Amino acid sequence: MEPLFTCVSNNAHHLYTLLSCIGIASKATVQITPDGLRFSVEEGRVIQGLAFLDKSLFNSYTFNQQPVPNNQGSTENDDSSEHITYPHFVVSLSALLETLKIFGINDLNEPNGIRDTNLPQTNPASSAFSAPTLLMDRSCTLQYAQHGSPLSIAITESGVKTTCELVTYEAEDATDIPLQRDAIIMKIIMRSAWLHNAIAELDSSNPTILKLSACATREPFFALSGAGGPFSESTVEFSVDQHNEIVGGASQAGPQSQSHKVLADDGSSRARATRAKLAPTVTETFLVSPPSSMGERIAQNYRFALIRKAARAMSVANKVSIRGDRQGVLSLQFMIELDENNAVGRPVGAGMKAPAGTVCFVDFRFVPLLDEEDAEMDVPVDNE
């Protein structure tokens, strides 16, 4: 009898990189689909991390079961007209990551198993001990034989095969934190490094609340503030470089703008360009359209400790898409480009295509604070 699911990868470091981005909880829900593996973690229904391991990450990907129709429908906000259920189960994410580390995959990019997400990422190929040649003749096989079976992880290296089996658990019928895609009122795309640096700067004051402010008509156009901590409130503003001359709807960017364009109205005339909408210089896309009930500015508060949990993804991603809906749900969708040499997080400027390699996405969703006093409450911890 053929196993329900089998996949093989010659670069398991990619799997570790993506899964470690959502390593905020001890357990993860895994869903097997024809297009890839979906890992989901959550804490207290106020934060959710989603990582999708696309089938293109694997050298071979075999799924031997047809999807089962779900007559009860789905509460997820997706574009599919048919709601189907694919095999899903719960597995220990911490054990899975530790398994990859035991096999030495983590050593390629994290000497001694220690990593500071506040430090800039280095190219692992620059080390003589992490050269791409060390990855030759290594493969990682994931296998799920049938419903209720363990998740088998087999690492083969230089003819030596090591197998680890992780116990799987029945998944609860939990729904995702809903992001209303038809009610998006804010979409900002920028280099992930800019967001990571801003959060690290605010974190130095040990705040409890992250205040997000965005406006399309007046400054500050986009600002992040840390409040509620033992020190005074601090703010990072993403401003327009007024010294840049706007020509033909694009900014002639200076050295500090990293060649990111400023969104403006289409047109080649200088007169039209000067009347174009302004946007923070570091942004590639800046769309803010709050409903009339909010006024002209979007202002939402989030628990800073939860935002901090996305720091790992911020540090390895190329770009981040910051989206918010009418209900205040915040989505941080990170684009992570992986190449054959294990390099991640390489800068991608506006108007540029991603470097050759596999592009993957990690998504974090956050529920807003209804009252600043809510930030004083302890964050629920999964003790299981």
Automatic annotation (TrEMBL):
Alphabetized InterPro entries for the sequence: Rad1_Rec1_Rad17
This protein's UniProt keywords: DNA damage, DNA repair, Nucleus
Localization per record: Nucleus
Main location: nucleus
GO CC annotation: checkpoint clamp complex
Top-level lineage group: Eukaryota
One biological process term in Gene Ontology: DNA damage checkpoint signaling
Family designation: Belongs to the rad1 family.
Protein name: DNA repair protein Rad1
